[in-house]
Design brief:
Elements lengths: L5 E2 L2 E2 L10 H22 L4 H14 L34 H25 L6 E6 L2 E6 L17 H13 L4 E6 L13 H19 L7 E5 L12 H7 L2 E6 L4 H4 L2 H14 L5
Helix pairs in contact: 3-4, 4-5
């Protein structure tokens, strides 16, 4: 039986070394733990000055009493009255002035659409526009342009004008009034008074808008005022012609308090528009 060989009198031993690669992972873990504790220590060091500024800013933003100077150079401070229970902004209701401005914008857009339709056919001069607390008035100027003398039948350019107006009116939800007017002179037969003449002309305009222009009949009505509501008080032929008219009124559906602000909004509207015109 053989025995292990010896070198220098010592028995040769073979030592098995265990794999030491786990040491690398262990050291990585220790490093990560050390970094974590450094970060935690850094976070525990509170900057008193920054904390005071943050506290003041939050107190001011939520409507609390001012407790010091607050740097408002950045960010938006929301009043406490406009913040809900969950911290979400509360929708602020529109004021009467906001609604009046929106109504004027809407009526101006309707006016411009109608004007463009008429201009495309060279008929822009046959109509006058007016926006006031009632709404938008589309005035058919001078009855002879649209009706034969002492007649309620549409004539001349009347059908073309109404066909250019009706597409815009049919697309809206506004109520519409067609108002007939006459001058102070008595009409001839078959009309005993200007009431019949003015209301007959208004009815013919209404029928054209509904039957050909597809304006909803539930949103439109006709009335004759005779000579009771003149726009000119003189006795000249020009004054008489101005009073012989049919008005198509797009009636504002805003409350009275809102409509009362429309004239003042229009003044600002006109001023703003004139300021944008180039100097010349």
């Amino acid at each position: 039986m053989s025995t292990p060989r010896k070198r220098g009198g010592l028995e040769e031993e073979h030592v098995e070394h265990v794999d030491e690669r786990w040491m690398a992972s262990y050291m990585d873990m220790v490093t990560v733990l050390m970094c974590m504790f450094i970060v935690l220590f850094a976070m525990s060091s509170v900057d008193a000055d920054k904390f005071e500024k943050l506290k003041n800013s939050l107190a001011t933003g939520f409507g609390a009493t001012e407790v010091g100077s607050v740097d408002t150079a950045e960010g938006v401070v929301v009043p406490a009255s406009k913040v809900g229970e969950e911290g979400e902004p509360i929708e602020v209701p529109l004021t009467d002035l906001d609604l009046a401005e929106a109504e004027v914008d809407e009526l101006e857009q309707l006016k411009e659409k109608i004007r463009l339709n008429l201009a495309a056919q060279g008929l822009e001069h046959t109509v006058d526009f007016k926006i006031d607390e009632r709404g938008l008035t589309i005035r058919l100027v001078g009855s002879e342009t649209f009706f034969a003398s002492n007649s309620t039948d549409l004539a001349g350019v009347a059908p073309a004008v109404l066909d250019a107006v009706s597409p815009v009116l049919s697309a809206t939800e506004y109520q519409i009034a067609v108002e007939g007017h006459a001058d102070s002179r008595a009409p001839g037969a078959p009309f005993p008074t200007n009431w019949e003449l003015s209301s007959g002309r208004a009815t013919q305009v209404l029928r054209r808008l509904v039957e050909n222009g597809h304006v909803g009949q539930e949103r439109i009505g006709a009335v004759g005022y005779g000579s009771a509501r003149p726009v000119a008080t003189g006795a000249s032929e020009a004054d008489m012609a101005a009073n012989r008219r049919v008005d198509i009124v797009v009636i504002s559906d805003q409350p009275e308090s809102v409509r009362a602000l429309i004239p003042s909004v229009l003044e600002n509207y006109v001023t703003a528009a004139s300021d944008t015109l180039p100097a010349g």
